[in-house]
Design brief:
Layout (H helix, E strand, L loop, with lengths): L14 H14 L4 H6 L5 H9 L7 H14 L3 H13 L4 H8 L6 H15 L6 H9 L4 H24 L12
Helix pairs in contact: 4-5, 4-7, 4-9, 7-8, 7-9
Length: about 180
């Protein structure tokens, strides 16, 4: 039998996490269920948010493409839902988001990023050399590669947490996607 996880309320988390809940409520208008679930750990939420919000060489749009394909490969419904919404907020069309979920893009440079991210996730880091070569051939650097791996690790952690806990999705599902 699988243990049932509930989403902790503000009153059920540590004072430090309560302050983070308050900040998230102000910034987003709600506390995402997956972030609330991280708050079972007294230090986990602050640690994760610092990691997630750290500077990177990848633009927000590229980060969303990586987040979406990693969530697709890891079969995380929660994160797919979140990154469909965030992808639209970052300028992707429905068609582009569908392509990214399939591991492709009509933009050659973005395609190299998405294809490599999908492959790295699926192979647990043992990427296809041709995809790595294509990544570099499209102008990406060693810095971009490191930042890609860090982005994949960020999203994989969230994917695994949701896949294990199966907490409710609190982002609107893009039914057409």
């Amino acid at each position: 039998m699988k243990t049932q996880f509930s989403v902790p309320t503000r009153d059920e988390v540590s004072p430090a996490n309560q302050a983070i809940f308050d900040n998230l409520q102000k910034a987003l208008g709600f506390v995402p269920n997956l972030y609330a679930t991280i708050a079972y750990s007294d230090n986990g939420l602050a640690r994760f948010l610092a990691y997630q919000n750290a500077k990177t060489s990848l633009s927000n749009k590229k980060k969303e493409a990586v987040n979406l394909i990693v969530s697709q490969v890891n079969e995380c419904v929660y994160c797919q839902s979140a990154h469909l919404v965030l992808g639209k907020m970052n300028g992707f069309t429905d068609e582009q988001l569908l392509d990214i979920r399939k591991g492709t893009s009509t933009d050659p440079k973005l395609n190299a990023l998405v294809a490599l991210a999908a492959n790295v996730t699926a192979t647990r880091g043992k990427a296809d050399g041709d995809l790595v070569d294509a990544f570099y051939a499209h102008g990406y650097t060693n810095e971009n590669l490191v930042d890609l791996i860090l982005q994949i690790s960020d999203k994989t952690a969230m994917n695994y947490l949701h896949n294990l806990t199966d907490i409710p999705v609190d982002f609107p599902l893009a039914s057409a996607l």
